[in-house]
Amino acid sequence: MHQERLTTLSLLHIESNLTEKIKAEDIVDAYDATAKLMLSRGDYFRLPGLAMVSIKCSPYHIGDKCVLMGDAAHAVGFEDCIVFDEIMEQLNEDFSAVLPEYSRVRVPDDHAIADLAMYNYIEMRAHVNSKWFLFRKHLDNFLHFLLPNTIVPLYTMVTFTRTRYHKAVDRWQWQDKVINRGLLFGATGAVLGGSYLLIKNPPDINKLIIPTEKMWARLMSLWTS
Length: 225
Description:
Helices cover 65% and strands 7% of the residues.
């Protein structure tokens, strides 16, 4: 960040081994020009919306010559590199053993993170305004505060720990089941307890009935106040 409040990025040209500095305003200009071109040609409104596609495959390697990793622009790609490096150390850089082991270790986690990405899309699209969803978020955080080693929110496991993704999903589903059952039993207990108290100590219905004149007078006082 410079004093003129313009950021820069470095683009590496591998062929020439040169680094070119480009100002953020140049990128914005290019973006604006591209957007105007698409709008002028009608591409934005003419082209159909495309479905979100997630491709899963296994294994991630071919023999001892090729392995699928990445992408390099996101955290999962960096994590692929960390896992690959750890396996390289464990197996003394023997690619005939490293690549199959990498596929064995990484495939279930990458498939799980693909499912979580789709779940996150659905959550952001449909759940963030749900009162039940917000209640569960607050409840999960509160339980995590009380029982930090037992209840860990999914977001915390995925973002701030190195818990393997498929294990994080399994734990999240177990926690969700336990909490929902606890809420169900708690609500059932409250209803049964309240019903028992009402049966043992029935209220005087006559005292609960407010005369029409008094109710109207109260409404009018609220209206005029």
